[in-house]
């Protein structure tokens, strides 16, 4: 052992008992508030239910808006977004729950948003390999609204907390969302 501190690997997410649409995210000694889906945390995720899925998900990839700040410091794969970035959320399309280029004929999310929610966005390994149609898409770890209003099923934190977390975790990091 060289004395180098090992990066924290597990982000623990739990809903608040008083409001299941908000929670706490813990990473080692770091604890920060987070926004959750409008339907709280569920064990059986369905497309469009507004719920955050319970489970253990690897943090796969980080996207960021290069026009809105420096890239976050992270050991995860990092890629700048472009105005043509999208994510397919159409369960009937072969690209379901995958990144796509816009314009795109099927239902999709625009990743280059007018608000700041996807200024930094981490893709979670939720229904990715393989993607099962209807089991949920675009489940991300991203920036929260200032008032921590609910997400559509993602986990979201303040921008400064996102940067702190990304600078702390290793490439094998996982997010555990507790039901």
What's the number of domains? Answer: 1
Chain-averaged pLDDT: 95
User: Based on the structure given, which CATH architecture is correct?
Assistant: Beta Barrel
Distance between the termini: 36 Å
- Strand element count: 14
Number of separate helices:
1
What is the element string, with H for helices and E for strands?
Answer: EEEEEEEEEEEEEHE
Beta-strand share of residues: 35-45%
CATH topology category name: L,D-transpeptidase catalytic domain-like
Low-confidence spans = none
CATH first level: which class? Mainly Beta
**What structural class results from the helix and strand content?**
mainly beta
Question: Which features characterize this protein?
Answer:
single chain; 179 residues; mainly beta; L,D-transpeptidase catalytic domain-like; 1 helix; 14 strands; 38% strand
Structure description:
The chain is mainly beta and 179 residues long. It has one domain (13-177): L,D-transpeptidase catalytic domain-like. Helix content is 6%, strand content 38%. The chain contains 1 helix and 14 strands. The protein has one helix at 159-168; strands at 8-15, 22-27, 30-35, 41-42, 52-53, 55-64, 78-80, 85-88, 99-101, 108-110, 120-124, 140-143, 155-157, 169-177. Strands 1, 2, 3, 6, 7, 11, 12, 13 and 14 form a 9-stranded mixed sheet that branches. The protein has a 3-stranded antiparallel sheet with strand order 9-8-10, with no helix packed on it. The chain is globular and about 45 Å long.
